[in-house]
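[09:14] KT: can someone run the structure on this one? pasting the chain below
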Amino acid sequence: MPRKPTYDREDLISRARDLFWQRGWAGTSLKDLEASLQMKPGSFYAAFGSKDALFGLALDRYARDGLARLQQLVVARGPIGALQQFALMAISNPAAPAKACMLSKTLLELQAHQHPLAQEANTHLLKMESHFAALFRQAQEEGMIGPSHSAVALARRYQSDLLGLRVSAEREGVDALAIADEIGQALGRL
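[09:31] RB: done, structure tokens below
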């Protein structure tokens, strides 16, 4: 009778996410994963199948966690307040292994190699853009912004600003908090 695994799969995926987020796909070796997850090679392959499979699970976790934070903010602050606070949260989490977005880092790293994980990252980015667009539509319905704006165009611009903000937060000498504040102020003027 096979033994039941003694590890917490969700915890392992979260730890792998953090390692991949910090180092990227190419910068994270199987030995790094085995050491970080405290797994022997056989256990690793039995649990996840491959580095790519685990990376896909880590991308999914990253995207789900980001969406959950956004949804909590919507409940607490409404659509525009949520978008304003989300930009600030993206760069001010001291526990995050990196400030730059894991999805955009993956897309940039792997797209030139036509790696399937680049497409997965892009799919997650497109889904997030659609959530942003839904919030802009909600803000229009609630009279917070005018109907002349395209919710899709606003979402694309917001996502672009957010990704740029996150890269800026990685740079020395850049006041990313001031940039986040400017993004929030621009949203308030719509």
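[09:33] KT: thanks! The chain has a mean pLDDT of 94.
[09:34] RB: yep, looked fine to me
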